[in-house]
Design brief:
The protein is α/β, with parallel strands linked by helices. The protein has two domains: 121 residues, Response regulator (Rossmann fold); 60 residues, Orthogonal Bundle (Arc Repressor Mutant, subunit A). Helix content is 49%, strand content 9%. It contains ten helices and five strands; from the N terminus they run E-H-H-E-E-H-E-H-E-H-H-H-H-H-H. The chain has a five-stranded parallel β-sheet, with helices on both faces. It is elongated and about 55 Å long.
């Protein structure tokens, strides 16, 4: 992980070290130092606290997913970050639990954005584009279908996570996406809609 502010760096170190699933491989005062270190070390996730977007691209990017805490929220920068292995963008005011969730999400190949970052990206679409998009429902992915079918079996998040080999945080993200795509307010309603749409065999 890297943060130019010593105070922020200590805070992030504390968050990572306090969680039993994470191991802190190194802590640095700049993104450049972190990337240099990462080239010789196998890392799953990199956590960076920075507002200097160009600094993130001076060195060849590591294969690790990046969690970024930043004040940057303009759509162009966010799009560029997402194209360069940044998988989570949070504000510096994020709770430790949010940082932990972002690390899990990045590790599992998901993208997590703070509300300002997501709203900035959404703002690039005009009303006409949104109207066209809402004409057809968003497709459920194959992984979400797996989760939906396990919900129909009555499995809880922990059991679903074990069966799929993912974290419980990721299961929660999938369930939230399923509810949103199906327009359901509860798991039971989602299962009923899934059966009606042929997503769940009966």
């Amino acid at each position: 992980m890297a943060a130019t502010s010593a105070v922020r760096r200590v805070g992030l170190e504390s968050i990572v070290r306090s969680h039993p699933d994470f191991q802190l491989a190194g802590s640095f005062g700049s993104a450049a130092s972190l990337f240099s270190f990462s080239h010789g070390t196998e890392l799953d996730v990199i956590v960076i606290d920075s507002d200097s977007i160009p600094d993130l691209f001076h060195e060849p990017m590591s294969d690790a997913a990046i969690v970024l805490l930043t004040a940057v929220s303009d759509a162009r920068s966010i799009s560029r970050l997402l194209r360069n292995r940044v998988r989570a963008i949070l504000s510096r005011e994020s709770d430790p639990d949010d940082v932990i969730s972002a690390i899990y999400a990045a590790q599992d190949g998901l993208v997590l954005l703070s509300a300002p970052a997501a709203e900035s990206l959404a703002a690039v679409y005009d009303d006409r584009a949104l109207e066209v998009e809402t004409g057809s429902s968003e497709q459920i992915t194959s992984r979400e279908t797996d989760v939906l079918r396990m919900l129909a079996e009555g499995l809880v998040n922990k059991d679903i996570a074990t069966r799929l080999g993912i974290s419980e945080h990721t299961v929660k993200f999938h369930i939230s996406s399923i509810l949103d795509k199906l327009g359901a307010s509860t798991r039971t309603e989602a299962v009923a809609l899934g059966i009606r749409r042929g997503l769940i065999p009966i």
